[in-house]
Specification:
Blueprint (H helix, E strand, L loop, with lengths): L1 H10 L2 H10 L4 E2 H8 L3 H13 L4 E5 L2 E5 L2 H15 L7 H15 L22 E7 L5 H12 L5 E7 L7 H9 L14 H5 L3 E4 L2 H6 L8 E4 L12 H30 L8
Helix pairs in contact: 1-4, 1-5, 7-11, 8-11
Length: 278
């Protein structure tokens, strides 16, 4: 558990989050970070030490200079460790099991000075089967298409239905089709669709995948759960053809990870396996 706590501490600072975001994109030395962030070298070194203790940084020495970087797979692995710590099965953690047992006792026999509990609104994802999920981004060109087809591929269609749409449909990007084909998912029939408010009101869960879609997506009824996945638009990536392709792959893999996590949550809510065996 020690490393997981160090990871939580490392990511629990606005300055360290700024460092992580910068170091995910480029190897950078301390003097460059000083110029970018406007923070003194000793202060930056102190923050880097916390990140190194959490094993989030790699360092490469070149002469008198040390260049730091956060590698995407390392950060994702760290997050998986933290997620597993938070959502560990009861049988694997004695303390958590004991705490929850005491919680059940308190709920069954509340103290006299405890407030009366107001029943929570039933979670939308529990309400019906199949669960209906809508992904929305600006152009329905890259991110929402990837999310739709990844969920179609991973989920049992009898228990999860999914569609995607865009605020301003722009056509499916050729590289979206290419990187999905790399993992065996065919998007040859995919079409860019315009967001339909009536469709969204029939959903159990609406997930926006960019800030523009989040701002422009209309208000939905309280029964529709809303979430936001902030993801970069790979179509806006700069660089040569290979660098742009790598960005499409990176976004695809991040969406795949989030989709699997979502399916795990639906499994836990419903008590039924909704994902296909992979």
């Amino acid at each position: 558990m020690d490393r997981e706590l160090k990871i939580l501490r490392a990511l629990g600072s606005k300055t360290r989050l700024r460092l992580v975001r910068l170091l995910l994109t480029e190897e950078i030395c301390v003097c460059e970070l000083e110029h970018i962030l406007g923070i003194s070298q000793p202060a930056i070194s102190q923050q880097l030490t916390v990140l190194r203790e959490a094993e989030l940084l790699t360092a490469r020495r070149e002469g008198n200079w040390v260049f730091y970087q956060v590698e995407g797979p390392v950060l994702l692995e760290a997050w998986e460790r933290v997620r597993d710590l938070l959502f560990c099965p009861l049988g694997e953690d004695v303390q958590t099991r004991e705490d929850r047992a005491r919680l059940r006792q308190v709920l069954e026999e509340p103290f006299s000075n405890c407030p009366d509990r107001i029943p929570k609104r039933e979670a939308p994802l529990k309400k019906r089967c199949p669960v209906r999920i809508d992904f929305v981004c600006t152009g329905n060109s890259c991110r929402s298409q990837m999310a739709e087809y990844l969920l179609r591929n991973f989920a049992d269609p009898a228990r999860v239905t999914v569609q995607s749409s865009g605020v301003d449909p722009a056509g499916v990007h050729p590289l979206t089709i290419a990187v999905m084909e790399e993992i065996g998912i065919d998007l040859s029939d995919a079409e860019s669709k315009r967001m339909d408010y009536e469709d969204l009101t029939e959903s159990d869960l609406v997930i926006t995948l960019c800030g523009d879609a989040r701002e422009r997506c209309p208000v939905t009824p309280p029964a529709v759960e809303r979430r936001h996945w902030e993801l970069p638009d790979p179509a806006s990536a700069v660089g040569d053809d290979e660098q742009v392709l790598q960005e499409f792959r990176r976004v695809r893999d991040e969406i795949a990870r989030r989709v699997r996590t979502l399916l795990g949550e639906i499994n836990a809510l419903s008590g039924t396996r909704v994902a296909r065996d992979q």
